[in-house]
Design goal:
Alpha-Beta Plaits, two-stranded antiparallel ribbon
């Protein structure tokens, strides 16, 4: 079982330190991180907490899921592993890759070329 926990629907006022202190009630916290927007420097409203053991993580999930923080009901569950993104087209080391889309392109589209 994983020790990493996803915490969603966080108020923008929550910091790394306050997130860590909330989870510390259930056991030792290895790390606590509120995700921040690169451009604005503001919280994205979610974060991740890593606990010392899977048992402690499960206790924290059970105890904190649905709890009200500054008027918002937070979502607490096990973090899913990051999915590998295949990209959304565009430029890559292999070059421009709009050819993946079957609905756009030249040929068989009649006057104007594309199929829209």
């Amino acid at each position: 079982m994983s020790k990493k926990i996803y915490v969603g629907n966080l108020p923008y006022s929550v910091t790394d330190a306050s997130l860590e202190s909330n989870f510390a009630e259930f056991g030792r916290v290895s790390s606590a991180k509120v995700m921040m927007d690169r451009e604005t420097g503001r919280s994205k409203g979610f974060g991740f907490v890593e606990m010392a053991s899977a048992e402690v993580a499960q206790a924290a999930i059970t105890g904190l899921n649905g709890m009200s923080v500054d008027g918002r009901s937070i979502v607490v569950n096990l973090a899913r592993p990051r999915e590998e993104s295949s990209g959304s087209g565009g430029y890559s080391p292999a070059g421009y890759s709009a050819a993946k889309r079957s609905d756009v392109g030249y040929g068989t589209g009649g006057y104007g070329g594309g199929r829209y």
